[in-house]
């Protein structure tokens, strides 16, 4: 979508990088709860719920990542 909107390369990089390699906690936690409810002994692998990255490579991308994390914490 960013390319279709003709955004600059810098903005596209930030969009791609702002989640880094963090875990999508909400879905990971739900998968763990579902595994516990169904008595599965296997642990849920956090790697299955991790963003592919890359980690932020610029200060701007890192700031957007921090802002996104703060927003998620405030909303939860």
Description:
The protein has 76 residues and is an all-alpha fold. Helix content is 51%, strand content 0%. It is built from 3 helices and no strands. It has helices at 9-17, 25-37, 59-75. Helix 1 packs across helix 3 (59-75). The mean pLDDT is 92.
Q: Secondary-structure blueprint of this entry?
A:
Layout (H helix, E strand, L loop, with lengths): L8 H9 L7 H13 L21 H17 L1
Helix pairs in contact: 1-3
How would you sum up the major sheet?
A: none
Helix content bin: 40-55%
Q: Please count the helical segments.
A: 3
How far do the termini sit from each other?
Answer: 27 Å
Number of strands: 0
List unreliable stretches of 5+ residues: none
How do the SSEs run, as a string of H and E? HHH
Secondary-structure-derived class: mainly alpha
Write down the Rg.
16 Å
Strand content: under 5%
Shape summary: elongated
| Mean of pLDDT | 92
């Amino acid at each position: 979508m960013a390319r279709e909107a003709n955004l600059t390369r810098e903005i596209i990089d930030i969009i791609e990088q702002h989640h880094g390699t963090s875990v999508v906690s909400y879905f990971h936690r739900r998968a763990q709860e579902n595994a516990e409810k169904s008595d599965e002994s296997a642990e849920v692998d956090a790697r299955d719920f991790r963003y592919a990255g890359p980690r932020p490579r610029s200060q701007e991308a890192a700031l957007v990542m921090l802002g996104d994390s703060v927003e998620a914490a405030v909303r939860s």
